[in-house]
Specification:
single chain, mainly alpha
Length: 111
């Protein structure tokens, strides 16, 4: 910690938490972001990525690291869900038009 207040420049000691001159906090209160915050955000991002992006908005001010993690995970899993849905659409359409039959599907998955 500095020997001077970052707000008013007054001399302070190492153990002071509030500046005597201006009354402002010298050490900001950092909210602890624990394991369960990350666990919750991971579960939300995997299961409901759109909801995760919505939860990001109010969470970004109080817990910025958890919010950033939630946003990144939500975007990754949204892209993954879109790719999975597109794969099943493509696979279903290819069965309907006769490109694949159930027998050839098993051969493709075994290869």
């Amino acid at each position: 910690m500095n020997n001077y207040c970052p707000h008013c420049g007054a001399a302070v000691t190492e153990d002071q938490k509030i500046c005597i001159e201006c009354g402002k906090k010298l050490v900001p209160d950092a909210k602890k972001e624990g394991f369960f915050g990350y666990l919750f955000t991971t579960i939300v991002a995997v299961i409901l990525p759109i909801i995760g992006m919505i939860i990001y908005i109010p969470l970004r001010k109080g817990r910025p690291r958890t919010a950033r993690y939630l946003l990144i995970m939500s975007i990754i899993f949204l892209i993954l869900w879109i790719l999975i849905i597109l794969f099943f659409i493509w696979f279903g359409l290819s069965i309907l038009i006769g490109i694949f039959t159930p027998q050839t599907d098993m051969i493709l998955f075994l290869i």
